[in-house]
Write a structure and sequence with these properties.
The structure is a single chain. Helices cover 30% and strands 19% of the residues. The chain is an alpha/beta fold and 372 residues long. It has 2 domains: 15-140 and 261-284, Response regulator (Rossmann fold, 3-Layer(aba) Sandwich), CATH 3.40.50; 141-259 and 293-337, Rossmann fold. The radius of gyration is 20 Å and the shape is elongated.
Length: 372
């Protein structure tokens, strides 16, 4: 009999109708902050989305990839290369890449496959009608990481001191850290920050956390972190730290995963690319925020850390949109049969709803004003 390794919760976002492509060769630029290897699943999701819309590489599109390999100072040079290639649209991976592309060109449309809070980081001032040449997807990264503090405390009540693993060179860190500091106080958590710019600094970051007697670590958003989730999870377990990050982090061996479905965002980026190639202006394409959030507990890692996870833990899950109002969810929860720590076999559940704000697919939240 297979062992149960994950508890999973998911809320869903609406599907979209797809259009047909133009009958010409288009050139798409892709500006990645991290590495091709670490972003392989995301890139494949983008390609899948394009194929669903009728775009096939070598037949009617060419994709020019440029990767900074975590060296953000290379982004300007790489963006300039894409501009010289006269691409029709630039797809960006992460906030650093989006910011650099926006600074490099005001003429070529930019699609954010993923961006951490485009308003808080100053990329745009409006989601409904983005100015200049930027559109795509973003998510409320500050609230997301503050929520992770609450979840790690709920799963591990013994935790009293939490650190955020943060890349100081990533602009998303600027709004994240203050939000987490504010969230730590009512939870009676001491809060610290461990900085790392990439894999070469992970060992020293975890050694620093050990010296400061940190009980748990929150893995904040960064391209280099995402490409190294397995390594980070191994270090967290070796240092006996509870840990939480994106949902892919739990799949890679971390204790808890909570966040958006990243491959889903990359697949959705194809929708924006398609619209732009057919003549739409970025300012006429509202920036979208995902309404699907996945909560995963890796039971194998929990056992290694000596933690017991009660199946009823999920009954206190909250609506992210209404979290500050404390609205309770009525989630469906399951233990998922799983043979290992890969994505295969993970069951995504039917959407739950917030009993107070009635947040459901294709509904309007009357408490927080969020349109699903």
């Amino acid at each position: 009999m297979k062992r149960r390794h994950f508890i999973t919760f998911a809320a869903a976002w609406p599907l979209v109708a797809y259009a047909q492509p133009l009958g010409r060769m288009a050139r798409i630029g892709f500006l990645g902050s991290a590495s091709a290897t670490g972003s392989a699943k995301s890139v494949e999701a983008l390609r899948t989305g394009l194929r669903d819309l009728g775009y096939v590489e070598g037949m009617n599109i060419v994709i020019e990839f440029r990767w900074a390999e975590g060296k953000y100072d290379r982004l300007s040079e790489l963006a300039a290369e894409l501009i010289r290639l006269n691409v029709d649209v630039i797809v960006t991976h992460g906030t650093p890449g989006t910011r650099t592309a926006k600074q490099a060109t005001s003429a070529i449309p930019i699609v954010m496959a993923i961006s951490g809070d485009a308003i808080a980081t100053g990329l745009v001032t409006s989601l409904a009608r983005p100015e200049a040449n930027v559109t795509g997807s973003t998510f409320f990264i500050t609230q997301l990481n503050a929520k992770r503090l609450e979840l790690v405390k709920e799963v591990c009540p013994h935790v009293t001191r939490v650190a955020a693993l943060s890349n100081p060179n990533n602009p998303v860190s600027k709004p994240i850290i203050p939000a987490m500091q504010a969230a730590a106080t009512p939870l009676k958590l001491e809060f610290d920050v461990a900085e790392a710019q990439g894999p070469s600094e992970f060992d020293s970051a975890f050694a620093s956390m050990a010296k400061r007697r940190v009980d748990a670590v929150v893995i904040t958003e960064d391209g280099e972190f995402a490409a190294s989730f397995g390594e980070i999870a191994t270090l967290a377990v070796a240092n006996k730290l509870a840990s939480i990050g994106a949902q892919e982090y739990a799949q890679a061996g971390g204790l808890i995963g909570y966040g958006v479905n990243l491959p889903g965002l990359y697949r959705r980026a194809a929708y924006f690319v398609d619209k732009i190639l057919k003549g739409a202006k970025p300012a006429d394409l509202p920036i979208e925020q995902p309404t699907r959030f996945e909560f995963i507990i890796n039971l194998k890692t929990a056992k290694t850390l000596g933690l017991e996870i009660a199946p009823a833990m999920g009954q206190k899950f909250r609506c992210l949109q209404c979290a500050t109002r404390g609205k309770e969810l009525a989630p469906q929860l399951t233990l998922v049969e799983h043979a290992g720590n890969t994505q295969r076999g993970i069951e995504l559940l039917q959407p739950s709803h917030c009993l107070m704000c009635l947040l459901r697919p294709s509904r309007h939240c009357i408490a927080c004003g969020f349109d699903t």
